[in-house]
Amino acid sequence: MSKWSGTLERLDNHRWRIPASYKPGMRVDGLIYTDEDMLQDILSDQSLEQVANVAFLPGILRHSLAMPDIHWGYGFPIGGVAAMDFDEGVISPGGVGFDINCGVRLLRTNLSEPEIQPNVKQLIDQLFRDVPSGLGSSGRIKLKSNEIDRVLMQGARWAVDSGYGHPQDLEATEERGQMASADAAHVSAKAKQRGAPQLGTLGSGNHFLEVAVVDEIYEPETAAAMGIGPLGQIVLYIHCGSRGLGHQVADDYIATMVAAMKHYKIELPDRQLACAPLTSPEGKAYLAAMSSAANYAWANRQCIAHWARESFCRVLGRPEAELGLEMVYDVGHNMGKIETHEMDGKRVKLCVHRKGATRAFPAGHPDLPERYAAIGQPVLIPGDMGRYSFILVGTRKAMEEAFGSTCHGAGRAKSRGAAKKAMQGRAVLESLQSRGITVRAGSIGGLAEEASEAYKDVSHVVRVAHNAGLSRLVARTRPVGVVKG
Amino acid sequence: MQPFEVIEHTADIGIKAYGGTLAEAFANIGMGLFSIMTEPETVDQTEKHVADIEAPDVEALLFAWVNHLLFVFDVEHLLFSRFDILQFSDEKLVAECWGEVYDPGRHEIELGVKSATYHMLEVDREHNTVQIIFDV
């Protein structure tokens, strides 16, 4: 792969700019959050060209943004953020991604590491049994005819009403787990056919359940407000998305947008950026379908959280109330959201695309639950299986500069194929076990794809996000057991 | 000539397929797709699925072809190891896809593919070569 040799200007220690003059057709500058070290990696592929290409999209405001975990995607870079004026701008399915509302849910516990140490293997085995995972996996939920429409309209609320989890879980979920802009009528029969049997499944690829231990706290008061701490506390991460339903919605609407672009006379350097005006029939239909897929993802994580709680109770032989297992937060990182932001003193309605980027709203934002009004929105950044994951919090600077956005994960350092050749799955398993991490995976081959070495060091990514002011570090966790899809 | 090769991309993986005709290259894209998901030698050809796909142009047809195969895998759990193209134009493809239902006891799933993408998608009529990157 050739090195990127476009125009790049350093603004300060953490920000670089691609001027709009770099390519005729760019409507705004590109703005990249990184540092000198990571920049060398970023320059080794064409992800910055993708930042420049996103700047072509009609109605884009301020900057085409790249978060510190930027890597080469398709159309949009992974780690890309683009905000479009609602009246003048477009919505792009490629700017949301194929796994709509892929995201992270974090549960806290009253357990300490020594308490679960003797049971970790048993717990991971139980989670592996209770939460269906793997490619093409079918769920434990048998939906009645048309019930999929209720899932798509109600999201996590459907799950809670059906006996999966508690009403207070919704308080700790972005959008309370239900986007009002959903309309199941805009989701194809194929998408529903694909999604219905997969509800309540983890899926494959980089999706996982991680039992982790809090091993560093940077802001004790903020952590305490989230129920995090003291050191040694056990927590559970759930990382997954909208499964085949979201993929089909993306496929359907990319095809729709490719056709619609001719009609709206939109020309772009990459077909994967296909889009339509937000106010057009195609744009409105996609927003409704994407919101429905987002609701499916929240219902999915809600069901999985319920079974994970049952797994903990069964293995430890103690009731849920005693174990804690309360939600800290649930936030997506592949989304297009209609939000109001302040620009030049005016309140402007926008569509913020976050493709592999996490919403990071500051303290006092009206969309946050009351318990986080004083500290800001929890930001959940999973790393890889062998290293760390991080809990951060949204900032005013992220709001002012990056439409309330920050990074979403480690970012890939190697292509999956290269990682696979370098290390066999078995070796990955042994390496993790030697570090005291219990792993169960649907596929040993798939495990090789997700080895630590395939990712950038997430510690470096969150450090840049912290230093650039996009979010503040609250706590670090390290894995003790992982279930991989 | 080899039927296809695997292309690597930072986050993803793709296939470049060759053929004596464009139709054959499309068939080889299918072979390439299932070769990265599993070992095609382990997939018996006992089940037939007829794919009938239409799209506004040949690039969109390629995108739709791959996504159709992924849809069939998700819904019917069918893995394929042979594709006979019965009808082919820029806007339409009819193919008999031969394979069997995924059996975790016999088929090792190596990599899950979520979707086709338009990123670096290429249809080269002169050389009957097609290329597609998957989201995995």
List keywords for this structure.
heterodimer; A: alpha+beta; tRNA-splicing ligase RtcB; 8-stranded mixed β-sheet; 7-stranded mixed β-sheet; 17 helices; B: alpha+beta; Archease, Possible Chaperone, Chain: A, domain 1; 5-stranded antiparallel β-sheet; 38% strand
Mind explaining what this structure looks like?
The complex is a heterodimer of chains A (485) and B (136). Chain A is built from 17 helices and 19 strands. Chain A has helices spanning 36-42, 47-54, 113-116, 120-130, 147-154, 156-161, 167-171, 189-195, 220-225, 243-263, 281-316, 320-323, 396-402, 416-422, 425-434, 444-449, 458-467; strands at residues 9-10, 15-18, 29-33, 60-74, 76-85, 90-91, 103-112, 208-217, 233-240, 276-277, 324-332, 334-343, 346-355, 358-359, 378-381, 389-394, 405-406, 438-441, 471-484. The two termini of chain A are 30 Å apart. The longest helix of chain A is centred in the middle third of the chain and has 36 residues, at 281-316. The model of chain A has no long low-confidence stretch (mean pLDDT 94). Chain A has a single domain (9-413, 455-484), classed as tRNA-splicing ligase RtcB (Alpha-Beta Complex), CATH 3.90.1860. By secondary structure, chain B is α+β, with helices and mostly antiparallel strands. Chain B has a single domain (4-135), classed as Archease, Possible Chaperone, Chain: A, domain 1 (3-Layer(bab) Sandwich), CATH 3.55.10.10. In chain B, 26% of the residues lie in helices and 38% in strands. In chain B, strands 1, 2, 6, 7 and 8 form a five-stranded antiparallel sheet that branches. The model of chain B has no long low-confidence stretch (mean pLDDT 93). The interface between A and B is large, with 50 and 39 residues.
